Protein backbone atom coordinates (compact mmCIF):
# COMPACT_ATOMS: atom_id res chain seq x y z
CA UNK A 1 0.00 0.00 0.00
CA UNK A 2 2.83 2.37 0.87
CA UNK A 3 4.47 1.72 -2.53
CA UNK A 4 1.24 2.59 -4.37
CA UNK A 5 0.97 5.92 -2.54
CA UNK A 6 4.62 6.65 -3.26
CA UNK A 7 4.17 5.82 -6.96
CA UNK A 8 1.02 7.97 -7.14
CA UNK A 9 2.90 10.91 -5.59
CA UNK A 10 5.80 10.38 -7.98
CA UNK A 11 3.41 10.34 -10.96
CA UNK A 12 1.73 13.57 -9.87
CA UNK A 13 5.09 15.30 -9.30
CA UNK A 14 6.35 14.04 -12.66
CA UNK A 15 3.15 15.24 -14.38
CA UNK A 16 3.49 18.66 -12.75
CA UNK A 17 7.10 18.93 -13.94
CA UNK A 18 6.15 17.95 -17.51
CA UNK A 19 3.28 20.45 -17.50
CA UNK A 20 5.51 23.25 -16.18
CA UNK A 21 8.21 22.57 -18.78
CA UNK A 22 5.71 22.47 -21.63
CA UNK A 23 4.16 25.78 -20.58
CA UNK A 24 7.51 27.55 -20.23
CA UNK A 25 8.69 26.16 -23.56
CA UNK A 26 5.87 28.05 -25.29
CA UNK A 27 6.87 31.34 -23.70
CA UNK A 28 10.22 31.47 -25.51
CA UNK A 29 8.56 32.20 -28.85
CA UNK A 30 9.18 35.83 -29.80
CA UNK A 31 6.61 38.39 -30.89
CA UNK A 32 3.55 36.77 -29.36
CA UNK A 33 2.76 39.71 -27.10
CA UNK A 34 1.79 42.97 -28.81
CA UNK A 35 4.22 45.82 -28.11
CA UNK A 36 3.25 49.41 -28.82
CA UNK A 37 5.47 52.04 -30.42
CA UNK A 38 7.11 54.13 -27.71
CA UNK A 39 8.22 57.68 -28.59
CA UNK A 40 10.15 59.51 -25.87
CA UNK A 41 11.59 62.99 -25.54
CA UNK A 42 10.85 65.71 -28.08
CA UNK A 43 8.81 64.41 -31.00
CA UNK A 44 10.88 65.74 -33.90
CA UNK A 45 9.25 65.87 -37.31
CA UNK A 46 11.27 66.28 -40.49
CA UNK A 47 8.99 69.09 -41.69
CA UNK A 48 9.50 71.09 -38.47
CA UNK A 49 13.28 70.65 -38.49
CA UNK A 50 13.38 71.80 -42.14
CA UNK A 51 11.76 75.08 -41.04
CA UNK A 52 14.56 75.75 -38.53
CA UNK A 53 16.81 78.54 -39.86
CA UNK A 54 19.88 80.43 -38.67
CA UNK A 55 18.76 83.84 -37.39
CA UNK A 56 15.60 82.68 -35.62
CA UNK A 57 15.00 83.79 -32.04
CA UNK A 58 14.81 81.41 -29.09
CA UNK A 59 11.07 82.02 -28.83
CA UNK A 60 10.57 81.05 -32.48
CA UNK A 61 12.58 77.86 -32.01
CA UNK A 62 10.60 76.96 -28.91
CA UNK A 63 7.33 77.63 -30.75
CA UNK A 64 8.47 75.45 -33.65
CA UNK A 65 10.07 72.52 -31.79
CA UNK A 66 8.75 72.80 -28.24
CA UNK A 67 10.66 72.96 -24.97
CA UNK A 68 14.10 71.33 -25.21
CA UNK A 69 14.87 68.19 -23.24
CA UNK A 70 18.15 69.66 -22.02
CA UNK A 71 19.49 73.18 -21.66
CA UNK A 72 23.16 72.94 -20.77
CA UNK A 73 23.61 74.09 -17.16
CA UNK A 74 26.84 76.03 -17.76
CA UNK A 75 25.95 77.34 -21.21
CA UNK A 76 22.31 78.44 -21.47
CA UNK A 77 22.83 79.13 -25.18
CA UNK A 78 22.84 75.45 -26.19
CA UNK A 79 19.60 73.49 -26.39
CA UNK A 80 19.34 69.73 -26.94
CA UNK A 81 16.28 68.11 -28.49
CA UNK A 82 16.39 64.32 -28.13
CA UNK A 83 13.88 62.03 -29.81
CA UNK A 84 13.91 58.30 -29.05
CA UNK A 85 11.58 56.04 -31.02
CA UNK A 86 11.16 52.32 -30.44
CA UNK A 87 8.78 50.56 -32.78
CA UNK A 88 7.44 47.21 -31.55
CA UNK A 89 10.32 44.71 -31.60
CA UNK A 90 12.94 46.80 -33.40
CA UNK A 91 15.88 48.37 -31.65
CA UNK A 92 15.37 51.97 -30.47
CA UNK A 93 16.43 54.78 -32.77
CA UNK A 94 17.63 58.07 -31.31
CA UNK A 95 17.83 61.45 -33.05
CA UNK A 96 19.54 64.41 -31.40
CA UNK A 97 19.21 68.02 -32.52
CA UNK A 98 21.56 70.57 -30.94
CA UNK A 99 20.67 74.26 -31.38
CA UNK A 100 23.25 76.94 -30.50
CA UNK A 101 22.35 80.56 -29.80
CA UNK A 102 24.46 83.70 -29.45
CA UNK A 103 24.28 86.03 -26.45
CA UNK A 104 21.22 87.81 -27.89
CA UNK A 105 19.24 84.56 -28.25
CA UNK A 106 19.59 84.24 -32.03
CA UNK A 107 20.30 80.84 -33.63
CA UNK A 108 23.89 80.68 -34.85
CA UNK A 109 23.92 77.04 -35.92
CA UNK A 110 22.16 73.73 -35.39
CA UNK A 111 23.15 70.12 -35.92
CA UNK A 112 20.96 67.05 -36.41
CA UNK A 113 22.98 63.87 -35.84
CA UNK A 114 21.14 61.76 -38.44
CA UNK A 115 18.24 62.42 -40.79
CA UNK A 116 14.71 61.99 -39.52
CA UNK A 117 12.35 59.63 -41.31
CA UNK A 118 10.32 61.61 -43.83
CA UNK A 119 6.62 61.08 -43.13
CA UNK A 120 5.29 62.06 -46.56
CA UNK A 121 3.72 58.64 -47.01
CA UNK A 122 0.74 57.98 -44.72
CA UNK A 123 0.87 55.07 -42.34
CA UNK A 124 -1.38 52.08 -42.88
CA UNK A 125 -3.80 53.07 -40.13
CA UNK A 126 -3.68 56.82 -40.88
CA UNK A 127 -5.81 57.17 -43.98
CA UNK A 128 -5.87 60.53 -45.71
CA UNK A 129 -9.35 61.56 -46.79
CA UNK A 130 -9.49 63.56 -49.98
CA UNK A 131 -12.46 65.44 -51.39
CA UNK A 132 -12.01 64.44 -55.03
CA UNK A 133 -15.38 62.71 -55.30
CA UNK A 134 -17.20 65.05 -52.94
CA UNK A 135 -19.91 67.19 -54.42
CA UNK A 136 -19.99 70.96 -54.08
CA UNK A 137 -23.63 71.03 -52.93
CA UNK A 138 -24.53 72.68 -49.69
CA UNK A 139 -26.35 70.77 -46.97
CA UNK A 140 -29.44 72.95 -47.38
CA UNK A 141 -29.60 72.33 -51.14
CA UNK A 142 -30.19 68.59 -50.83
CA UNK A 143 -32.86 68.58 -53.57
CA UNK A 144 -30.42 69.59 -56.33
Automatic annotation (TrEMBL):
Gene3D superfamilies linked: 3.30.1450.10
Membrane topology: Lipid-anchor
Lipid biosynthesis listed as a keyword: no
This protein's UniProt keywords: Cell outer membrane, Lipoprotein, Membrane, Palmitate, Signal
Signal peptide, first to last residue: 1-27
GO CC term (a single one): Bam protein complex
Subcellular location: Cell outer membrane
Gene Ontology molecular-function annotations: protein-macromolecule adaptor activity
Residues in Outer membrane protein assembly factor BamE domain copies: 41-109
Keyword Repeat: no
Complex and partners: Part of the Bam complex.
PANTHER family membership: OUTER MEMBRANE PROTEIN ASSEMBLY FACTOR BAME
Protein's recorded name: Outer membrane protein assembly factor BamE
Organism this protein belongs to: Pasteurella dagmatis ATCC 43325
Gene name as annotated: smpA
